[in-house]
């Protein structure tokens, strides 16, 4: 039975990846942080009483800032595969705590790589590093000739998060080249799901739409509506992570849908799912959206009601304006194919939020 160790197992991707690996017959170990209240909601359905027989899912207390803890967990587990998904992953928040982000997202990656080396597991343990499309920074001049970002596009991070992740990217590549480790970077474009953290823009929108439709929220406040993102579904992307570690040779891969959508259009799409049509007024910092029509008898709101307002407090000091990825290499070498479109993703998120709100 193969053993996998996942950092960030309590997060969106960690939970989907744990499900996938358990289905594939892995013994799955996860690193979770001690918190003052429960933080395992996304994985509680996987957890069994550790006193039962045949328990293939185990959690270890730990933190990417603590080298000794990481060394001990890896020594105990002796994993065949490590997936480093742990990170302070919010781009806007990274401007408020840049040093912490450098420590967790940057040096945390180094700590895992060094632990593998110190423990003599260089030729046994494969490692996946959660790199990101934030590395590109959305610089228009760095796109390829087809107008996409791919594995050869230059990096230009635009946040402390991006800067920390660029260290993670290069140190992973360096350990692969220096020590012959099976170490891969997945350069993943945005991926969402009903399990997405509530402060990322898609989930913030789908939750607000469900709340507004049910008259439980008055108005949604958002930042830059003009940003464009290549949004896929987390379930598709964890499949790609696993495939990266099943090849003969380690390499770096972009996972993306190849389509980009403006935040404003995701907002329109989400309200349309509950039968509400919007009309926009004003521009930039003063932009608002009002109810134009309600086509669903279950969700009737007063016509002309303001349901969205721009709040510049959500703007970032430096923004990534547009991201669109070229997944050709992953499709060709890994046989990876995303199943969701942004529309089916949005529909699933709205349906789940309507059920739980
Ligand atoms: P989440 O924010 O949902 O999850 C992050 C996980 O990291 C949580 O389990 C969190 O624990 C854990 N974590 C945070 N700080 C530490 C720490 N100091 N030590 C150990 N663990 C820690 O992120 P996603 O699941 O969306 O993303 C997974 C990874 O992929 C991240 O590295 C992210 O940066 C990267 N990525 C994500 C993309 C996306 O669109 N989702 C795109 C590209 C890359 P806790 O629950 O206790 O907070
Ligand atoms: P991102 O995701 O920064 O791309 O990072 P996020 O959903 O936070 O922002 C996407 C875009 O929406 C704009 N935006 C808002 N964003 C948030 N969070 N809240 C708002 O109210 C709001 N209004 C507009 C943002 O300015 C931005 O342009 C995600 C994370 O998962 C990273 O960890 C990952 O590396 C990248 O995706 C790829």
TrEMBL record:
Pfam families named in the record: GDP_Man_Dehyd
EC number: 4.2.1.47
This protein's encoding gene: gmd
Function of the protein: Catalyzes the conversion of GDP-D-mannose to GDP-4-dehydro-6-deoxy-D-mannose.
Molecular function (Gene Ontology), one example: GDP-mannose 4,6-dehydratase activity
Recorded family membership: Belongs to the NAD(P)-dependent epimerase/dehydratase family. GDP-mannose 4,6-dehydratase subfamily.
Domain of life: Bacteria
Lineage of the organism: Bacteria, Pseudomonadati, Bacteroidota, Flavobacteriia, Flavobacteriales
Organism listed in the record: Chryseobacterium cucumeris
Cofactor(s) the record lists: NADP(+)
Main EC class the enzyme belongs to: lyase
UniProtKB keywords: Lyase, NADP
HAMAP family xref list: GDP_Man_dehydratase (MF_00955)
Catalytic activity annotation: GDP-alpha-D-mannose = GDP-4-dehydro-alpha-D-rhamnose + H2O
Residue span, NAD(P)-binding domain: 5-349
Protein name in the entry: GDP-mannose 4,6-dehydratase
